[in-house]
User: Which sequence fits this backbone?
């Protein structure tokens, strides 16, 4: 059954962020609910930092099914929740909240979503991969944790500020072999790396002429992946493609983080293909 009308049984979901006007999450989730015949609706809530606590109370008071959380609230929302899932605790950030009879649990589906997208779109075997992760911020933490859980035997974390990379490597060292280094040291390890992943914002619109790693380090045998999806093809991915490397963009991560959230909320498998289709269509229409 394909529903389109709201009624008194409709369960409401949404995304909290500031700014939020360009979020593609509402069209993606509403399309998914409709596809699966679920009586639910999803909207975008513009919530400032001062309003965040009140907004979380509102989830309980109004009985929302759950929310996504985006910039700048992914860390700040954590103390207002009742429970934090282990992955979110280790990533240090929450992007999905599930409301179960007034008990709010925070999850992080960014890292899981990224790894699901990487595996499905490249078919890579992560259990033999040697990964260079560029960046040591929140996004890098979630991705590093999930890569370790997938059995990646060795992860190098390189960051402009090497101290942050070394600190993150220490934390993640509990899960697999992880080595932190400065960006200026990557020349020494490039020959043994099979996947390069950019988790920084370097190359994101409007700074599309920037790239996080010198072109001379790229080669044919690599998979090069960028978490950025605006633009769809970053300078890093263009240069990787030009030297024959396989490339993987950030759009899949967006789709799959949404898919994982959908599955947490509904207990049903997410209709990935229609979600991807409608987001692509919206990016083409609105740039
Ligand atoms: P997020 O949660 O999106 O990962 P973050 O925690 O602010 O955001 O982390 C941003 C990451 O991008 C960091 O690794 C940052 O490097 P520093 O730790 O040295 O700040 C990296 N980054 C941001 N802008 C950068 C730039 N212009 N050049 C190199 N690295 C940059």
Assistant:
């Amino acid at each position: 059954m394909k529903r389109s009308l709201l009624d008194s049984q409709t369960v409401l979901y949404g995304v909290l962020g500031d700014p939020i006007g360009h979020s593609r999450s509402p069209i993606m989730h509403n399309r998914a609910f409709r596809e699966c015949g679920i009586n639910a609706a999803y909207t975008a809530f513009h919530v400032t930092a001062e309003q965040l606590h009140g907004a979380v109370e509102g989830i309980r008071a109004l009985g929302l099914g759950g929310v996504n959380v985006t910039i700048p609230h992914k860390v700040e929302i954590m103390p207002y929740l009742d429970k934090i899932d282990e992955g979110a605790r280790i990533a240090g950030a929450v992007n999905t909240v599930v409301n179960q009879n007034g008990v709010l649990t925070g999850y992080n589906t960014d890292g899981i979503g990224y790894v699901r997208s990487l595996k499905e779109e490249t078919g890579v075997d992560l259990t033999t991969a040697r990964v260079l992760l560029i960046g040591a911020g929140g996004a890098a933490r979630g991705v590093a944790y999930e890569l370790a859980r997938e059995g990646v035997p060795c992860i190098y974390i390189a960051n402009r500020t090497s101290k942050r990379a070394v600190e993150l490597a220490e934390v993640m060292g509990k899960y697999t072999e992880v080595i932190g280094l400065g960006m200026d040291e990557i020349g020494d390890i490039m020959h043994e790396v099979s996947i390069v992943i950019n988790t920084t914002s370097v190359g994101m619109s409007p700074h599309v002429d920037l790239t996080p790693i010198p072109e001379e380090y790229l080669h044919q045998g690599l998979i090069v992946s960028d978490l950025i999806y605006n633009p769809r093809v970053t300078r890093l991915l263009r240069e990787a493609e030009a030297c024959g490397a396989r490339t993987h963009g950030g759009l899949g991560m967006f789709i799959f983080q949404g898919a994982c959230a959908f599955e947490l909320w509904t207990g049903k498998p997410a209709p990935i293909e229609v979600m991807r289709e409608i987001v692509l269509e919206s990016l083409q229409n609105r740039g």
Remarks:
- The chain has a mean pLDDT of 95.
- Residues 1 and 202 are 44 Å apart (CA to CA).
- The pocket of 2'-monophosphoadenosine-5'-diphosphate is lined by residues 135-140, 159-161, 164, 199-202 (CB under 6 Å).
- The longest strand covers residues 11-17.
